[in-house]
Structure formats: C-alpha cells, structure tokens
Design goal:
This protein is about 30% helix and about 25% strand. The chain has nine helices and 15 strands. The chain has a six-stranded mixed sheet, with helices on both faces. It has a five-stranded mixed sheet with strand order 10-9-11-15-13.
Length: about 280
C-alpha cells in the first residue's frame, strides 16, 4: 500500500458517490440560482458539495470549495481538501458531457493526490505522485479513438474562450485545437495522455484547477501560471491569473510553437510561460 492509498480510496469513493447523485437527478428537476455576479449555481451541486465534505474531511483537515463559505482556518492546516463539486456548470445545464467533480488533497504545501470524475461518460482519473495517474475510461465517446495521439499535437481549448474569439490567434499554428468545457476535465485528459496541452486565457480559482494540477504532477507533466511561475495552493486569495498545463511529452511535441511564442512573435501575453516551457524543453 502506498503512502496515500487510503486518501485515494476516499477520493474515489467520494467521486463515485457524487456521480450517483448527479445521475439520480433529471435536468428538469434541478433548481438553478444565481450567485453574486450572475454565475449559475444548482441545488444538486450544493448537495454534492455537502456529501464530499462529509466523506473527505477528517479532524484537523482544511477545506476550500467553490460552494462553501471560505474560512481562513484552512491557512493553518497542514492537510487541505480543494474541491469543485461541479466544474463546467454551463455544460452540465446544457447536457454537454464535458463537466466533472474535482478533488485535490494538499499536504505540507504540496498537492499529493487528486481525482476527477465525469459522471456522464463514467471517466474516472485519480492518482498521486507515487502511483501516477490511473484511469477508468467508461464510455468516453469523444476520445475512444485517441488511444494513440495523432502526429499533430492536440491542444484542448476553452469553449467559452473560443466562442469569444480569444483563440483565433492560434488557428494557424501547427497543432489541432479542440474546444471543450471544464478546465478540470481538460487537465485530467492531458494528464491521462489523451491530449498534449491545455491553457486558459482568463483567471481561474484554485478549486477549478487543483484536481487537474494534482493529476498532471502525478503524471510528471508540467504546469505554470500565465506569469510563468509554478502555481501554489491554499493561498489567502485563491485566484490565479491563468493556468497552462502540458503532458510529460507535450512540451517536446509543441516545442516549435513554444519557441515561436518565446520570441514574442504575436503572442505577447503568452511570453512568460512560453519562454519558461521552451527553456525547460531545450534543457531536458
């Protein structure tokens, strides 16, 4: 048994229990409210949030979740759970199978284990730095043909960012671009080797990305914030300016693009992270 096997068992059990709640509710029975700022929130994700808290948190452990009132008590804890009971609310409400439950465990300032579950496709990704990333693929209809990555690198883009035109600058680059929902789900797919990279051009909260980052680190992938600095978690302000993740092989497969961007050629806002990734690739 690995050091974090008991924690991984708790993560998997909590993800599957949360998935059962989502599958038990038809979308027509889900109540949708508005948060401050206008973002939608559902009664079912609040129910799942309460379940995850009961199943995961033990004495002395901290908690940071999108659907819980934050407390500075977590800043004094050595073990913290970072949770999003529903990443991809827009996709969930429109029944696009690109949303998930996301869980990460942090210990002594390091993400040590994580798990992501897509209840609609029954895709389960979980792991630790000891185990690597373990996958249960379920139906996974959109990725069933991607057991072998194509010769052209695959980058998963934010559907909403693509819709707003923010990815048009990348349309002529030497990689395939696939718009998708849920940043946590995209990070999990990269960690599982089903894509080479993903990045977001807008700020994200720790709970949005912690589970995916934990999996990428478990898979020996590479993660930076958009300012080119590795992310840290359990901060007083849990907001990142943006996040970029590459698989273990994705940096090398996308090296021509990274070297282009690192010169500042038309992608000035990407310069810090591209330069850092290009440097790490050339030194490997």
């Amino acid at each position: 048994m690995t050091k974090y096997q008991t924690d991984l068992d708790r993560i998997v059990s909590a993800l599957e229990a949360g998935g059962e709640i989502y599958r038990s509710r038809s979308i027509g029975t889900v109540r949708v409210d508005k948060k401050t700022g206008g973002a939608p929130v559902t009664d079912v994700e609040r129910e799942v949030n309460e379940l995850l808290f009961r199943m995961l948190v033990q004495n002395g452990e901290g908690w940071l979740s999108e659907e819980s009132t934050d407390s500075e008590e977590r800043l004094r804890c050595s073990r913290i759970w970072l949770v999003d009971p529903l990443d991809g609310t827009a996709e969930y409400l429109t029944q696009i199978p690109e949303w998930c439950i996301s869980i990460a465990l942090m210990e002594e300032e390091q993400l040590v284990a994580g798990g992501i579950y897509n209840p609609l496709t029954d895709e389960l990704f979980y792991g630790s730095r000891e185990t690597g990333v373990l996958c249960r693929n379920g139906s996974a209809p959109r990725f069933a043909a991607d057991a072998e990555l194509p010769s052209e690198p695959l980058v998963l883009a934010s559907r909403s960012e693509v819709r707003r035109g923010e990815w048009e600058r990348f349309c002529r680059e030497s990689f395939r671009m696939r718009p998708m929902g849920s940043v946590a789900y995209k990070l999990a797919l990269v960690a599982a080797g089903k894509a080479d990279a993903t990045w977001t051009l807008v700020p994200k909260h720790e709970w949005d990305v912690a589970g995916g980052v934990a999996l990428l680190l478990a898979a020996q992938g590479h993660v930076l914030k958009s300012d080119g600095v590795p992310p840290s978690f359990n901060n007083r302000n849990p907001l990142f300016p943006g996040l970029i993740g590459f698989s273990a092989t994705g940096v090398e497969r996308l090296r021509p693009f990274l070297e282009l961007v690192s010169t500042g050629a038309g992608f000035r806002d990407c310069l810090p992270w591209a330069r850092a990734f290009a440097s790490s690739s050339s030194n490997s």
